[in-house]
Amino acid sequence: MNPVKILSVDDEIDLELLLTQYFRRKIRKGEYEFYFAHNGLEALSILLKHKDIDIILSDINMPEMDGLTLLTKVNEMHNPALKCIMVSAYGDMGNIRQAMNGGAFDFATKPIDLEDLERTIDKAVEQISYIKNSMEEHNQLESLKTELTVAGEIQQAILPSIFPPFPEYDDVMDLAALMTPAKNVGGDFYDFFRIDQDRIGVVIADVSGKGIPAAIFMAVSRTLIRTIGLQNVSPGTCLTKSNDLLCQESVNSMFVTVFYAIYNVKTGELSYCNGGHNAPYILRADGSVELLLTSINCMVGAVEGINFANDTAQLGIGDTLVMFTDGVNEAFNTSNEEYGDERLQQSLATLKGKNCRELIEAQLANVKAFAGDAAQSDDITLMALQRRS
Questions:
Q1: Going by DSSP bridges, is the β-strand pair 289-291/55-59 parallel, antiparallel, or unpaired?
Q2: Fewer Cβ atoms within 10 Å of its own Cβ: the N or the C terminal residue of the chain?
């Protein structure tokens, strides 16, 4: 434990001897450490050299710089953990009152009652300890806040952000995605990658839990699915292999819901696997909206050793596959009403003719308009893939 550092400021030399004699045991034990100055100017010089002084025990009436002026200078240091105990004659109550109004912690009168002074110092030490602990907790919270902000920036940087992502396919397809986290970091993610000349993989997923653990699990899940998907395996095989690997690494029973599809840019054929995720919608060219039928599969990372089934569908020219996480359909407004699947389907029906970027931005705006002033409780992620020809 560090000693309590006390600066005594008094032009009476006898006080130095008196304090060192009375507190000699605490000084020997390393509980107290004293510094001595004879006026305010000397005290400021010592404070500049020893910024860890805890308590100033200052006389009010001194030459060159008095105690009240010193107190003003100490206040300008803006150190709430530095406490001033002012000392003056009993009859000098006007200056003592001025010192207390000026921010002094307490006062003592001359001749000094050393037992009373010791109690006053102990009381100051308690407050100093409390303030230092509070400042440390505040600094830790600020540091954590900074780390979360950086983590959020890193997480956003992980997600693809260049659109259109495949300029060579601009004539035959369109693709756009966005993710709006509820907090600094989120558990949603999307991804897309080119598998071969004719096929691309698209992924949208939602990790269980919140905060840093979900963000880490999100990064691991995305890496696994992308790595296995690039091995040119079916969506079901990709999620089967990813599931077994994630089950081995899962902590606190975390899992991820995943929709992974392989899209053939020439034929419009869609091969996909749904691992416990929200089923996407197909916005047909004529404005009708259909729920994409999916096999019932478990979440990824929940149960080891299961096989994930494949499904297929066909996108016609002008059709758009709209993928989303439950932050969309499970958004709530201030009346605690849920946005819901029916409202989502009705909203999509109004977005006929929009390109993918326009569509997902309009859908996000519709959800936010519904939620109003209600706090966003979950990450919102949307991705759209449209067949152009």
A1: unpaired
A2: N
